[in-house]
Amino acid sequence: MAISISVILLLVTLIVIFLRSGKLKLSHAIVCGLLGFYLAGSSLAPDIHHGLANAAEVVSSVRP
């Protein structure tokens, strides 16, 4: 588990750097995809899923 957390932190750091620079290239998109796969396989996946589901529920309940 310690190795995957380290990889996740590394990938998050790289994504933040890429977003701040304003240049998102193909290699940067691949890093973002890898982060998604690592997060999906981590112990954080259920929490992320529940958080996104709750956010979608709140957004769908807003009436214009």
Strand content: under 5%
User: Helical percent range?
Assistant: over 70%
End-to-end C-alpha gap: 44 Å
The average pLDDT is 80
Structural class estimated from helices and strands: mainly alpha
* Low-confidence region ranges: none
The number of helical elements comes to 3
* Sheet with the most strands, sense and barrel status: none
The rough form would be described as flat
| Elements, N to C (H/E) | HHH
Radius of gyration: 15 Å
Count of DSSP strands = 0
How would you describe the overall organization of this protein?
With 64 residues, the protein is mostly helical. It is 81% helix and 0% strand. The chain is built from 3 helices and no strands. Helix 1 packs antiparallel against helix 2 (26-40). The longest helix has 20 residues, at 2-21.
Features:
64 residues; 3 helices; mainly alpha
Task: Set out the fold topology.
Elements (H helix, E strand, L loop, with lengths): L1 H20 L4 H15 L4 H17 L3
Helix pairs in contact: 1-2
